[in-house]
């Protein structure tokens, strides 16, 4: 994936930037005190109600825009939604704008980040116009961090949105290699039958049925030489037919997004490296296509993982946890200070929490509290789910050590997380993300979306004892 696409940036500070007022319905009676009498009368005559995302440009006598009103909606609208004023970025005419209202730092940061995220367009196959309105970074916000968050999110969205024909395992590896080169890191990839020699048998088993030019591979990137070690593992299933347990057409339609975990860890890595967070970073991505061929893995095959555990395959469509297991076992050998997996892993997580709130799992209560608090700060919702020990028996079949797809249809996200934990060294956090925005929302167009990355970035100082450094 090219890095020459427009990057989200703030306008330079300037007194000439057009003043932008954020207005709630409760503010309307007092507009006369904030605006000139003429502009207050203009807003009233135009029927401006300050609904969420409403925009009204205020002209001078010559018709030139000299101020803007942006609606913030009522208390209920703000409680329900994120980035609700961000559509202004797409609706305003070209020019630079500065927020002149006094907001809390958190509210100003949300408004500014939403403005940047609103500028995303997936234009690889179709020319699209990007917003020409630019925002001056509000006073008190960390502009560099917000720009890095948006840039990482744009990368994640581009990767997920790209069809599988143009984003196979080799393409994903090329993107990772470009990221490593950009940030001065090391890059290695193990491909095809070399996975067997490298003792990564489950990655090989899942991807071996794909065409030769889409052979399975493990991407391995490292950055930095000092500080605590953070290892990110992202599920890179570039397309998932379900294997011999083939998916129905309705379930296969979105499977270009099944590499959303890989896309998210690459976006997060881009954020971390852009901000020079003082740590060592390793990124592992098992990149495969779960295809159908004469050599595809079969139901009730038994595979032996890198760490020696045997796994009975009771559904070839539960392949993500297999490729992650080998990568987690490899990562654990290095004893990272924090091990994180991100994956579009289970439909059960969507049934439980819907597309907008991914669950995360950890045994560490303090870490869970730090991540939950960061999710609120970063406006990146998450919800902790339990590694419920009573369900361990569900992933233990009679034939092998583990079952990749326990029957019964209950607790599917939890049993998948428990399966992964068998391969992961502590401290470990797992995110079961969706990676897709089903319908457009402020700052989030329909399509690929990152989940959990901003929250984790925000939590890193607390999680790794970095003393707030970013």
Automatic annotation (TrEMBL):
<keyword id="KW-0645">Protease</keyword>
<dbReference type="GO" id="GO:0005737">
    <property type="term" value="C:cytoplasm"/>
</dbReference>
<dbReference type="Pfam" id="PF21337">
    <property type="entry name" value="Peptidase_M17_N_1"/>
</dbReference>
<dbReference type="GO" id="GO:0030145">
    <property type="term" value="F:manganese ion binding"/>
</dbReference>
<dbReference type="InterPro" id="IPR011356">
    <property type="entry name" value="Leucine_aapep/pepB"/>
</dbReference>
<keyword id="KW-0031">Aminopeptidase</keyword>
<dbReference type="InterPro" id="IPR000819">
    <property type="entry name" value="Peptidase_M17_C"/>
</dbReference>
<dbReference type="GO" id="GO:0070006">
    <property type="term" value="F:metalloaminopeptidase activity"/>
</dbReference>
<comment type="similarity">
    <text>Belongs to the peptidase M17 family.</text>
</comment>
<keyword id="KW-0464">Manganese</keyword>
<dbReference type="Pfam" id="PF00883">
    <property type="entry name" value="Peptidase_M17"/>
</dbReference>
<dbReference type="GO" id="GO:0006508">
    <property type="term" value="P:proteolysis"/>
</dbReference>
<protein>
    <submittedName>
        <fullName>Leucyl aminopeptidase</fullName>
        <ecNumber>3.4.11.1</ecNumber>
    </submittedName>
</protein>
<keyword id="KW-0378">Hydrolase</keyword>
<feature type="domain" description="Cytosol aminopeptidase">
    <location>
        <begin position="315"/>
        <end position="322"/>
    </location>
</feature>
<dbReference type="InterPro" id="IPR043472">
    <property type="entry name" value="Macro_dom-like"/>
</dbReference>
<dbReference type="InterPro" id="IPR048816">
    <property type="entry name" value="Peptidase_M17_N_1"/>
</dbReference>
């Amino acid at each position: 994936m090219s890095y020459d696409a427009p990057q989200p940036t703030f306008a330079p500070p300037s007194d000439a930037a057009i003043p932008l007022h954020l207005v709630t319905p409760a503010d309307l009676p007092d507009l006369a005190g904030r605006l000139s009498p003429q502009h207050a009368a203009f807003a009233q005559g135009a029927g401006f109600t300050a609904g969420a995302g409403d925009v009204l440009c205020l002209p001078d006598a010559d018709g030139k825009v000299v101020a803007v009103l942006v609606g913030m909606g009522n208390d209920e609208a703000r409680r329900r939604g994120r980035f609700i004023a961000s559509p202004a970025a797409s609706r305003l005419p070209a020019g630079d704008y500065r927020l002149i209202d006094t907001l809390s730092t958190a509210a100003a940061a949300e408004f500014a980040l939403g403005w940047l995220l609103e500028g995303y367009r997936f234009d690889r196959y179709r020319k699209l116009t990007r917003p020409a309105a630019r925002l001056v970074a509000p006073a008190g916000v960390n502009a560099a961090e917000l720009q890095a968050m948006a840039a990482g999110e744009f990368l994640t969205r581009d990767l997920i949105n790209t069809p599988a024909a143009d984003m196979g395992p080799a393409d994903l590896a090329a993107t990772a290699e470009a990221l490593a080169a950009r940030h001065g890191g090391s890059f290695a990839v193990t491909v095809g039958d070399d996975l067997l020699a490298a003792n990564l048998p489950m990655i090989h088993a899942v991807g071996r049925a794909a065409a030769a030019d889409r052979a399975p591979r493990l991407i391995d990137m490292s950055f930095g030489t000092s500080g605590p070690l953070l290892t990110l593992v992202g599920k890179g299933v570039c397309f998932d037919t379900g294997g011999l347990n083939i998916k129905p057409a309705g379930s296969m339609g979105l499977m270009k997004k099944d590499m959303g975990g890989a896309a998210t860890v690459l976006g997060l890595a881009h954020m971390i490296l852009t901000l020079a967070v003082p740590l060592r970073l390793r990124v592992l991505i098992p990149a495969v296509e779960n295809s159908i061929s004469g050599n595809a893995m079969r139901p009730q095959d038994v595979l032996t993982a890198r760490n020696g555990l045997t796994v009975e395959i009771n559904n070839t469509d539960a392949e993500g946890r297999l490729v992650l297991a080998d990568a987690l076992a490899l990562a654990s050998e290095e004893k990272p200070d924090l091990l994180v997996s991100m994956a579009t892993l289970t439909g059960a997580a969507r049934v439980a929490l819907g597309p907008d709130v991914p669950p995360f799992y950890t045994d560490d209560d303090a870490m869970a509290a730090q991540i939950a608090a960061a999710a609120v700060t970063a406006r990146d919702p998450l919800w902790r789910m339990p590694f419920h020990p009573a369900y361990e028996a569900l992933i233990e079949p009679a034939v092998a050590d583990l079952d990749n797809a326990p029957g019964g249809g209950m607790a599917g996200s939890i049993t998948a997380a428990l399966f992964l934990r068998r391969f992961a060294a502590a401290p470990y956090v797992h995110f079961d993300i969706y990676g897709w925005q089903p319908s457009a929302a402020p700052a989030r167009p329909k399509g690929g979306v990152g989940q959990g990355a901003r929250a984790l970035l925000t939590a890193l100082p607390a999680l790794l004892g970095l003393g707030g450094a970013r």
